[in-house]
Amino acid sequence: MRINGAEPRGAPRPGQCLRTYLRDQGCLGVKKGCDAGDCGACTVHVDGVPVHSCIFPAFRAHGREVTTIEGLAAGAPGGRHPLQQRFLDTQAFQCGFCTPGMIMTGAALDAKQRADLPRALKGNICRCTGYRSIADAFADAFAGERRNGNGSHPSRDLPAPAGPEVVTGREPFTLDTAPEGLLHMKLVRSPHAHARVLSIDAGQALALPGVHAVFTYEDSPARPYSTARHEHETDDPADTLLLDRVVRFAGQRVAAVVADTVGGAEAAARLVCVDYEPLPAVFEPEAAMAPGAPRLHAGADGNLAGEVHSEIGDAEEGFARAASVYEETFAIHRVQHVHLETHASIAWIDADGRLVVRTSSQVPFLTRDALCRLYDLPADRVRVFTARVGGGFGGKQEMLTEDIVALAALRLGRPVQLEFTREEEFAAATTRHPMRVRVKAGADGAGKLTALGLRIVANTGAYGNHGPAVLFHSCGESIALYSCENKRVDGYSVYTNTVPAGALRGYGLSQLVFAVDSALDELARALDLDPVEFRRRNLIGPGDALTSIEDARGDVEIGSYGLDQCLDAVHYALARTRGRDRPEGNWEVGEGIGISMLDTTPPGGHVAHARISERPGSGFTLAVGTPEFGNGTTTVLVQLAADALRVPAEQIEIIQSDTDAVLHDTGAYGSTGTVVAGSAVLRAAEHLHELRRERGPHSELLTAEASCDGSRRSVAFNVQGFRVAVSPRTGEIRILFSVHGADAGTVLNPLQCRGQIEGGVVQALGAAMFEHVDIDASGKVITRTLRNYHVPVLADVTPTEVHFARTRDRAVGPLGAKPMSESPFNPVAPALANAVRDATGVRFATLPLTRSAVYRALADRRAVSGRAV
Amino acid sequence: MDLNTVEEIIPADRSAIEGWRPGDAWLAGGTWLFSEPQPELRRLVDLTAFAWPALVAGAGAAGLEIAATCTLAELASLGASRLGSSPGGEHPGPRGSRRRWPATKLFPECCHALLGSFKVWNAATVGGNLCLALPAGPMTSLATALDGVCTVWAPDGETISIPALEFVTGPGENALAPGALLRSIHLPDAALRCTTAFRQFSLSDLGRSAVVVIGRRSPRHGEVVITLTASVPRPAQLRFDRSPTAEELRDALDEARLEYYDDVHGDPIWREHLTRMYAEEVRRDLEEGRP
Fold first, then answer.
1. How many angstroms separate the CA atoms of B204 and A710, rounded?
2. Are A37 and B31 inside 8 Å of each other by CB?
3. Averaged in consecutive runs of 10 residues, what is the pLDDT profile of chain B (291 residues)?
4. CA distance A854 to A868
5. Under an 8 A CB cutoff, do B204 and A796 touch?
6. Number of Cβ pairs < 8 A linking chain A and chain B
7. How far is CA A750 from CA A159, A609, A635, B85, in A?
8. Are strands B63-67 and B55-57 parallel, antiparallel or unpaired?
9. Is residue A862 scored above 60 in pLDDT?
10. Would you say A43 and A104 are in contact if contact means Cβ atoms under 8 Å apart?
């Protein structure tokens, strides 16, 4: 075998797949997204033929020529294949984890395959971009056209600094490193949804050669914590132990095995004998709240992880004087993040005896703090950092691997790695909170809301990580968006014996926006008002107060208001643009919109420090804490620093997401990368610029630091519009036209911001039409592979037209910019459901709108849900 | 993924069949075997060592012999140049297979029905897909729709024939005894000479099949055969001496009392509806195609 023209060292193991063999040979651009042949991230060429190397037996490559991303452009002018250049030109990546496989697939296509790109790329998943930029890269990749990515403005549309490394597979992600003496961990997981661990016998496992340790509840610190990470430790209930004697969901870890090899750890894990006493389990939150239900956590009466009760005004009075009242229960299902890089981390002890953790995390500083508390270590004895992170979407605002590898490294004094499989992601990481939301909405004859009532029951799963915070956030912006004197909310976050829910893009809002927006659309119809006009009469204006629940939102201001522009843009685009033609035959066509608002920053403070220093010779080093996981923050931070210092972006070198780099950073969640970290960077860079001007020529190296505490908060707006055609014969929903209006304040990087919106819309469409994590009668997750959990591929996608409002925020910044990473997700599901309602007359109160669900509902249209009084 | 319990890979020969033991697995393309944990496996027996010709026209009886190890890519791109000749040499391989055998149109259609992309076609095999016995297995659809007959090497050295329709017995279940091996699938000349109609649908465009309906009509006798896969736990077939009327088809579907499959790729109500709808479309296609 030859790999990129060179002889490999050593033969593959008998059952080894080509993917891991190539990685052993140093080809780290060969990525693992699924390890099952579904996602395409590991695509390589064998004798010029593209294959998924994770399902290709390594021994079969014997005597053949293997080409990986590292060898693709061998001998090409400029060291890049034309497709690699085009991926740079169109910035056809965000996290970049899928990019090597996407390019290796694309480079092998013939003209006929390129003409049917959706089919050719059906085996390649990108979870970030929404595929528009990828399709654009292919459009001209073979025509020889080149475009200067920078354009005429030096800073606008600045490409991602890591781009050249990403498209060539050289950019290191979390596990693209191999410390000397690395050991591997595998977790033993519970088959029971609820059980007490009576005993664990690790004797046989420890007797296997190459096994270093088996950790059980006996090794667990007694201190409870939450896997969720927030700036304030008390935001989440401390209900989790490192290794517990009680397991509360099928898939919970009960033991951790460390061995020389992954295979050795797997073998030993199978030999760990755990004696369980099964306990009664409960899977549905309403049942878990009932008297006599099995109790998951001591002290959690009614299995409540959190609750909210609020009444502003007098809801009953409001409903009493309404001309029309609509009431319906909406059910929003469990979905998974499917970031292509699974959770993974490596822990070791450095030369100074410090614990070091390299991890795939959105929150390295908060993880450091959590490890310090768990193991009683001072902050300066623990370092946590990330390389480039392969996607997050909230799933990595969580400590799921770092805690246990840290224990192993501390105990063994050796580097230890834990990498989740794709199955573990589905069965034992986190999901969106499934919710049932009862909405009651009343309006008077003039089409003004008189009262809004919500009853929210959220399923937080076995642990309360993010449970209370998601519940509170869900009923914030979703109803603050509407001007209404009377608002009543009752909400419950309920423990059940299911895989824990956690943070997922939107953080509770995608669920509530679906419920509230669907209800208001229906209420408009009951009043015989155009749904857009009805919303216009009730949306908050720029001078209105933001009210949702009592004692909340006092610190949020409307620092800029582009909602009217977003709504107008979407409304007009729907009116004048046809999009794809209505299909031939029996299709029903309709239009719908969805509207959402998002606070620019989480409540209670979100901190970022930044330091910028002159480098010897020339250039600057910018140090920040926030990680890069495809959100594009790094690009914007470099852009801000370069503009403030009046230098080209190439002069800024960035060090990031390392607890050694700066004092503190809350992390990349709550859409804070641009707004909070960006503000800190801008202040530091402006300060340095001033210093340099004051000082004139100088010999010493100047440094400036600044921070932002995220205490001022504003709001961003998103409006999604769809025109759809629905087939009553098959239940298919075909999107004819998709348009999105976004109020992001000052748009610092339009190319990148557009990419965030396109990606958010497609991810939300996946959740609204295809994706669902299913749990069987025993509480086990049964959708454990990507072929049984369909996420959008290019074939599923219609391009979205994006319009930006022209606003500049006076409260937050930098330069009046507002966040735009989570929020495009939120209005998509209601816009789709409202469009389907418009087309068919059927209100879908339950997600997802699969073809089978739509067919069944249209087959029996008497089952019109909801009732107008 | 790595199959870390596998200790040995041995090239297959007839003696390997006799030496088969628990913990062994036949390795064809490996695209499924390597896609899921297989902790019970110790040894892989590499079928490519047989070096069977992928496609042989006119071998033994008139028709096409598809080796179990024929890849989907080889099948999809079937053309004159790809066809080997019969070892006996009596029947030279046909030229212009599509003209002589219109039903070869189904080959790429069925390959496209695989959820896996063209990259998977490069390794996945016809035999592997059939043995996997998933309701949505497109090679099951193809083999059953064209009255394929499976040649099986039994553990005792016997060679037996099993109609493809009886080969897949349930979701993930096939007629192979432990240690038995699927050698090839024979598609008879009479079936390959038929005109065909194909319908497939899933929960997403280009997704895993929820329903596959394939019809064929014999040019000589007008016999019509409609084969249902993906929507049912195992293949089902409706045979008619001549083109059925819509009512006859409906009655035949009623009489078949089919159980429709329920999994994440579709619920039974939707699948039954699609099956009946596409069966009727296929019936009409074949009727309209009447010369």
1. 42
2. yes
3. 97 86 96 97 96 85 92 81 38 54 95 95 97 97 98 92 97 95 96 96 97 96 96 98 97 97 97 98 84 44
4. 22
5. yes
6. 146
7. 11, 25, 12, 61
8. antiparallel
9. no
10. yes
Flag if B1 and A119 touch (Cβ within 8 Å): no
CB contact at 8 A, A129 and A797? no
Q: What is the DSSP letter of A261?
A: S
Is the pLDDT at A145 greater than 80? The verdict is no
Whether chain B has a CB inside 8 Å of the CB on A421: the answer is yes
pLDDT for A152 equals 35
Residue of A168, A227, A224, A130 lying closest to A825 (CA atoms): A130
Chain-chain contact of A263 with B267 (C-beta, under 8 angstroms): no
Q: End-to-end CA distance of chain A: give it in Å, rounded.
A: 74
**Token pair in block for residue A64:** 């053949």
- Of A423, A789, A856, nearest to B269 by CB-CB distance is A856
B264:A122 CB<8 A: no
| Complex ipTM value | 0.94
Q: State whether A55 and B39 contact (CB < 8 Å).
A: no
Whether residue A57 lies within 8 A of chain B, CB to CB, comes out as yes
CA distance B220 to chain A (A): 34
CB atoms within 10 A of CB A570: 28
- A141 has a pLDDT exceeding 70: no
B207: closest chain A residue by CA: A790
* Closest chain B residue to the Cα of A792, Cα to Cα: B204
* Residue B286 backbone dihedrals phi, psi, to 5 degrees: -70, -35
Percent of chain B with pLDDT over 70: 91
pLDDT classification of A262: cutoffs 50, 70, 90: very high
Give tens-digit pLDDT for A819-852: 999 999 999 999 999 999 999 999 999 999 999 9
Residue range A48-94, pLDDT digits in tens: 999 999 999 999 999 999 999 999 998 888 889 999 999 999 999 99
Phi, psi of A411 (to 5 degrees): -80, -35
Q: Scan for tokens 């959740």, then name that residue.
A: A767
**Contacts of the segment B246-251: beta carbons below 8 A, 24+ positions apart:** B246/B280, B246/B283, B249/B279, B249/B280, B249/B283, B250/B276, B250/B280
Residue A237, preceding peptide bond in cis (omega within 30° of 0): no
Question: Quick check: A451 pLDDT over 70?
Answer: yes
Provide the H-helix boundaries in A36-157: 82-89, 99-107, 111-115, 117-120, 132-141
Token readout for A741 is 């209006």
Contact call for B204 and A790, based on CB within 8 A: yes
CB contact under 8 A, B270 and A37: no
pTM: 0.95
Q: Looking only at Cα atoms, what is the longest distance across chain B? A: 59
Of A266, A787, A856, which has the smallest distance from its Cβ to B115's Cβ? A787
Q: What mean pLDDT is predicted for residues A171-178?
A: 96
A609-626 burial string, b = 16+ CB within 10 Å, else e? bbbbbbeeeeebbbbbbb
For B3, phi and psi rounded to 5 degrees? -100, 85
The closest CB to that of B201, out of A16, A119, A730, belongs to: A730
Question: Structure tokens of A774?
Answer: 């299913």
User: Hey, are the CB atoms on B270 and A852 less than 8 Å from each other?
Assistant: yes
Q: B96: which DSSP letter?
A: S
Q: Looking at CA atoms only, how far is residue A772 from chain B in angstroms? A: 9
A122, A262, A270: residue with CB nearest B117? A122
